[in-house]
Amino acid sequence: MELTRRDAAAALAALGASGGVALGARFAADRGERPEEDGSRDGDDVPADDEAVRETLTAVASVVYPSEVAGVSEFVEGFLAGRLDGSAHATGVRETVAELNHLANTWHGAPVADLDSADRDRLLREVGADTAEEDPGGTTAERVRYYVVNELLLALYASPTGGELVGIENPQGHPGGAESYQRGPQ
Amino acid sequence: MSGAESVGDERSAPDGVDRTPVTDADVCVVGAGPAGALVADRLAGEREVVVLDAGPRFDPEDRLARQERAIRPFYDRPDVWGVGGERDAHENAGDRSYPLNHARVKGVGGSTLHWQGMVMRLHEDDFDSASERGVGADWPVDYADLRPYYAEAERELGVAGASDNPYAPPREEPHPMPAFQPSYSDSLFAEACESLGIDMHSVPNARNSEPYDDRSPCVGYGTCQPVCPSGAKYDATVHVERAEAAGATVIDRAPVERLEHDGDDRVAAAVYATPDGERHRQEADAFVVAAGGVETPRLLLLSASDRYPDGLANGSGHVGEFFMDHLFAGAGGTLDEETRQNHVGFYTSACDQFYDEADESQAPFKLEFFNYAGPSPVESALTGDDWGDALRDRLRDEYGNHVAMGALVEQLPDADSRVTLADDRTDDRGNPVPRIEWTVGDRALDTIERANAIQVEVLEELGADVEWVAGPDATGPAYHHMGTTRMSDDPDRGVVDADCRTHDLENCWIASSSVFPTSGAMNPTLTIAALALRVGDDVAGWLADES
Fold it and tell me: For the region Disordered, what residue ranges are annotated (chain B) (predicted)?
């Protein structure tokens, strides 16, 4: 099933984006406090740039999205074009991607995008993102679950194409109109 | 701003807003929920009106981020609108724990920000429970008294409905908008109900089925409860903005801590706090308390004085007593066919057939046919330890064939079910927090079983495997706080009179479901709105007489 830029736009319509506007005071205020580091993060990490975020999330999407989904790169790129704004969320994504790549380099000798699919899957499980509950201010595992894995799953399954994969063309979060609930199975 | 954690910090961020009192105010309204907003809008064109609300103004630009909070598992329901913490601390002491902070939103718009938006009129017998059903209390007003206000409330909120409900009370005109069409799953239920002789009909929604009042029609976000990003669902910011356009002043983050009275049994001022730590006195000729079924009695109790040692407007001793909610009864299961759930977050068909069978032993109840049974795939996708094809397969297995019914059941007023002030616990400003003792009597519990029996019968007729039943042991509140400043003609038996004016203080009204002597089983907000419009008229008349 082909994901399109339209799906990316639909995901953004569901989740919101304002596009590159940094709102100074609020940006600082809503970053919030981070708990104690869990020791797996290099204090010298710097937030990933947009290109690294796109490459990394596209690579992770190839693992967490179903195998029949095509057009992942364009979908992720389109989605992130709106998500990587000046918000605290965008900062969290960048920082967490940098952490994940640091771990990929340390444990597997290459950033996430350069790992093969099996190693990406293994890395995510080694980090603990499979069993962690998402938490934007939690451990590395919880933040990878929040900012990377669930970020991608939310984008996919709140879009019409992602919804259709599991039987609902107007999933929660998608403004797909007030007619689909009236229709029977196709 | 994108991202659920990017929601603005309206509760504590400095904002430079002038929150000093308004001079020469005619009316001070406490609370910017639907009741306060409607009263303010009613009076703002002719009078100097100031509205004080304990919570913040919410940025409309944050609605998608709040929706993301509603979907993401990290966030609990109170997180969506920033409820909780010491500001909203409370105690539970009754038979049943009451999840107060799941049941309210503090801020401009109040709990209509997170409500589902169902707006039925109470039935005629609901106003005469003691006379017609032999239990509860009669209201000092009848359906006929409220009928024109119900019609006006439907226009103000924007209600989509139809006149196909043979059990609804009489109405004088069509709803402002056509009803939402039945869902696909409604059509499945219809066959089962027809064979059982159970009637289905449309249900009125405070949600635009077409463009109305410069607001969008429903676009199917599916997260109505707790947030509608499109604005199709009515919320009280509509009337707050209208009141402000007409000249009203709305001060947010200004919790009223006490009402002060003068020597003539009139309220003289509302004392409120502001984020800078200051306290102010808002004087006015008339006061309308519209702070909901818990904070309204709390404010009156906090306002105790030497003259009124048991709290303001509490000559009857009933302030805080008779706390009621509607009880939920439900059942659900799965079919061996697709049911098309979770496209929208509201329901489109109901059954009021059994409502007026109510008597001493059976409470009124209504049945609802859900359009949101079973899991929402996008929410399920964010939990579990699977991804890729395994996750897709799980979502396919989980979604698609669920059905469910709900019901709301009346509970009788009971003086022992009540809101008081906690002895030892205080909020962020040092004021005693509300203490809730919520009790539910046998009539309601027995009626839940009756509703369950009908629900299971319908589901079995439908061919469903019934997988859960929410009966007397699993019931919970519908988040409708009622009864704590009850209405009565007799000053010894109630806090407010038939005009919702306090018996003890002639310039103080209460606009809230807290004045309901009984609750019926219909969602309360349309009745709250009708009473608020009526309060607005009464205040206007009183002010005219005074001047």
Answer: 1-21
